[in-house]
Write a structure and sequence with these properties.
The chain is mainly alpha-helical. Helix content is about 40%, strand content about 5%. Helix 5 links the parallel strand 1 and strand 2. Helix 3 packs parallel to helix 4. The chain is globular and about 45 Å long.
Length: about 130
């Protein structure tokens, strides 16, 4: 006779909001982005080819839906700081709008971020006809 497994009462009382727990513990990881960055960090090259190498298919259960936009943004900023900005003494943010301001606020005050720069310039462009 098989007994039905029950969740311990302690867990039930500690985590009454299972959906919230799932969101906090099981956020998606942008594995393809991290794989690409690791490839570049190890000296890998990026070459252009004129045919499809990888095809992503959309479906509602895709793991990509669990990856938060903010997670991808944070990985991009860290990569930019570590691999590019760390060796520069100045740089320009060519968009003083929402994305440019978000980038500025996202840069780390230590390491490859803001403290390293002698000059940081914002440019907002407008086109006049």
């Amino acid at each position: 006779k098989m007994e039905k497994k029950q969740q311990p009462a302690l867990l039930k009382s500690l985590f009454p909001f299972n959906k919230l727990l799932e969101l906090l513990l099981f956020q998606g990881v942008p594995e393809d982005l991290l794989f690409f960055y690791k490839h570049l960090q190890k000296g890998g090259e990026v070459l252009r080819v004129n045919h499809c190498l990888l095809l992503y298919r959309y479906h509602p259960q895709a793991a990509t839906h669990s990856v938060l936009e903010e997670t991808i943004w944070n990985h991009r900023v860290k990569f930019l700081e570590d691999r590019v900005l760390g060796s520069w003494t100045s740089f320009t943010i060519w968009n003083a709008g929402k994305q440019g301001k978000k980038l500025y606020r996202s840069l780390s005050p230590l390491g490859g971020g803001l403290s390293e720069f002698k000059s940081l310039t914002f440019i907002e462009h407008c086109f006049v006809e």
